[in-house]
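ok new one. same drill as before - structure tokens go in, u give me an amino acid for every spot. 68 of them this time. try not to just spam alanines like last time pls lmao
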């Protein structure tokens, strides 16, 4: 299943927000393209910050894109 970055972040924050862990971390692997979804990545990152969830982003891809 492929989710857009913003929607993925929101879904994972929902999973972590009630956790009593000392730290909450999401590692987001992305090609950097925001092409779908109802929540933009910046808004989702703000939601993560509100709940104390750290987001580390790893970008993967090539300059200019490539065929899928």
């Amino acid at each position: 299943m492929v989710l857009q970055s913003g929607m993925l972040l929101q879904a994972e924050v929902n999973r972590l927000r009630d956790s009593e862990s000392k730290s909450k971390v999401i590692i987001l692997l992305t090609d950097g393209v925001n092409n779908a979804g109802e929540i933009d990545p910046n808004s989702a990152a703000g939601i993560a910050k509100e709940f104390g969830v750290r987001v580390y982003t790893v970008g993967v891809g090539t300059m200019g894109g490539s065929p899928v």
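The beta strands are 24-30, 53-59. and btw The longest strand covers residues 24-30.
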